[in-house]
Design goal:
Chains A, B: It comes from Streptomyces nodosus. Chains A, B: This is TetR family transcriptional regulator. Chains A, B: One of its GO terms (molecular function) is DNA-binding transcription factor activity. Two copies of one chain form a homodimer. Chain A has nine helices and no strands. With 199 residues, chain A is an all-alpha fold. Chain A has one domain: Tetracycline Repressor, domain 2, CATH 1.10.357. In chain A, helix 2 packs across helix 3, helix 5 crosses helix 8 and helix 7 packs across helix 8.
Chain lengths: 199, 199
């Protein structure tokens, strides 16, 4: 009996996981494109080709769906970032450029909409604050590792933190205008400053 | 007759200017507190103690009011920043700290709400993009002046630009949590790195 159950449950769970994943990806795309006001569970369900009931089975509330979505995509991005530098520590200029890239895509855009919405929505704020702290710690950990930064030395921790703040600020500047050319020059110069500070 | 007109117009113009100013200040406070969705001309007029008709006389559309408000407060902040350092060039660490402070108050919060709203609103986007470029250039000009930065030297322009991006990123981090203690440490470290880069 157990065997039959396992066989039957396998594909069902796979389907369930695939549905969940489609919802999460659609939620981030929707947030990035339409902002918080235009992002409801129904809109995302339709976008993902999933029934509203199935969407609500996975994510009972709008807050559940969108915080899970931003977390899921952030984890995907972290995995992709580590995969770019399989040896761990890598050329610091390349690492700085890859870190900044984390903040110029749809994930950052989606996260930004969520942050700003969280300012005004009491149900959203504590969850986004907690999520942001968790994602921020993980990004910091990866940055330290890939930059080969020795945080026991004074100033190194703050150098890495400031680099991630810079990346966030560059992402914000990118929101309304494509300032890729300017960003590249700033990143080149600041990569040099960071590399010198970490040496 | 000319004399009578002048006498009569004086106080009227003063009142009109004072009304305009009250509306602009109320608009920024409202945006910072309630976001774009909660910020209408009516809400701001009530907040400023001005009739809706008078508000619409000054600012025919919502876009007019809020872009004018962010610009007005940005100019006030620039003036205040220059007044902090009356001699022009000043101690670079103090200048870096003052620049970062520009991005952690209600003006930045209001501007951020306006930027994010502009992503989704076609009528708002070109005006906010243009406003942001203008305010950005002015802030850069002040930063170069107060830091005594020689932009003819390679990398200096990008160092100053990156510093303002860093400040913007720190402002964004401040949005949901009061991370003043962390910010102070990051600013201290990066003020040193920027000062070295400019020397």
């Amino acid at each position: 009996m157990g065997g039959v159950n396992t066989v039957e449950r396998g594909p069902k769970q796979d389907r369930s996981r695939a549905t969940r994943q489609r919802l999460l990806e659609a939620a981030v795309a929707c947030l990035a494109e339409h902002g918080w006001a235009g992002s409801t569970v129904s809109v995302v369900a339709e976008h993902a080709g999933v029934s509203r009931g199935a969407a609500q089975h996975h994510f009972p509330t709008r807050e559940d769906l969108f915080t899970a979505a931003v977390e899921y995509v952030a984890e995907e991005r972290s995995t992709a970032l580590r995969a770019l530098f399989p040896e761990g520590t890598a050329d610091r200029r390349a690492v700085v450029a890859a870190l900044v890239d984390l903040y110029t895509g749809p994930l950052f855009r989606a996260a930004l909409h969520l942050w700003v919405a969280a300012c005004d929505e009491d149900r959203l704020r504590p969850r986004v604050t907690e999520l942001e702290a968790r994602v921020g710690r993980e990004t910091h950990r990866i940055a330290v590792e890939l930059l080969g930064a020795d945080e026991s030395r004074p100033g190194v921790r703050e150098t890495v933190q400031g680099l991630l703040d810079l990346a966030r600020g560059l992402g914000l500047a990118h929101l309304l205008t494509d300032d890729g050319a300017r960003r590249e020059r700033v990143v080149a110069q600041w990569a040099t400053l960071v590399a010198e500070a970490l040496d």
